[in-house]
Amino acid sequence: MNSTLNLQKLSVGTETVEDLAAWQATRRAQTPDGLPRHVTRMWPKRESELLNGGSIYWVIKGLVLCRQRIERLDEYIGADEIRRCAIVLDPQIIRTTATQRRPFQGWRYLKGEDAPRDLPAGREAEEALPPQLAAELAAIGVI
Q1: Range of the domain at 73
Q2: Chain segment 90-109, per-residue pLDDT in tens
Q3: Number of domains in the chain
Q4: Buried b / exposed e across 105-132, counting CB within 10 Å, b at 16+?
Q5: Model pTM?
């Protein structure tokens, strides 16, 4: 049993894993040391569990398609002077089995045993199925 604690988050505005990677390559989406980050209003209360090998699982078009290991949580204060949490990520994006998720706001905790599996070695570079087809296959339990 995998006891790792993870986060799941909607990747709003992205259509593909490649879109997510392209966004994270922009300076706006990076920390001063060049790592990708996602800024959120809420600071995870279970920080120590997340930093013990946890990942953020990205939901793209209703499907979890990939994950990134969480490196650290940084304080981020924007131009509005409000304290936020920057979830700093490993730049490596690991593709996972496509798993359906209903829409939700913010982020949600995800237990390790409930997380989608990583794609087997050699399948990471495969072209992704069209989102509609992947959703339909996931709904009937094929993927």
Answers
A1: 5-139
A2: 999 999 999 999 888 889 99
A3: 1
A4: eebeebeeeebbeebeeeeeeeebbebe
A5: 0.83
